[in-house]
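User: Okay, second chain of the day. Same drill as before: sequence in, structure tokens out.
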Amino acid sequence: MLQFDEETTRVLEDAYQGADISRRRRANFDALQPQPGDRILDLGCGNGLLTLELARTVGPAGHVTGLDASPDMLAAARQRLQGRANTTLTESDAASLPFEPESFDKAVSVQVFEYITSRRPVLRALHQVLKPDGRLVIGDIHFDTFAWHSDNAARMQRFLDIWDNHLADRTVPARLPEELRDSGFTLEAMHPVTICDTSLRPDGLAAMMIRLIRAYAVESGATDADDAAAWAQEQEELAAEGRFFFSLTHFVCSARRV
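Assistant: Same drill. Structure tokens below.
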């Protein structure tokens, strides 16, 4: 697990609430179509931002359960959800959901499936806990859509290859339709949400990823601190010169339990 200093933690928090990630989160929220009284599972709830937004919508007659395998993330979510009686947080693995069959009207999972090696067991577990005709929304990035400018293309590709090592699968959106059908779901829609940054916005996804990739490259032993610093510094310089370009696409997949 990456360890973050105070400054990096602040950058990440700004990014999670910044325009790029908020738009991505909203696209998944809209696809889920939450209604008052719904019982919703937020699988991989992280720091609880989406959990909180869903809790506001379902109201006191509904309930949102956030599930995550990280105690640190759940601690952040617990603080964010203080006083929300219509929420519950659970620490668990995604493939062994500790819920009764047909417990939820809807389920959502954002930026989680790309870290799961065996997705079908998780999809089957979701099928079991959803009610018949229950809606499932999964949002993940297809990393073949990554376009990130650098004057040192070989170095940039090397760092992107390093970052790939922290994923279980970089092409989840392309694989989901078949996996959903095999797990008892009907695919309804697949919507792209493209993030494009030409200025290196302080609250943007690119700024967050520069921090994360730089830290991961060093902590994983893939390169040294000087190499990683030079890679990150070039992006700052490109932005100062008006030559920064970063783009990738997140896909929102909507399905229903058969």
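The chain has a mean pLDDT of 94.

User: Thanks, on to the next one.
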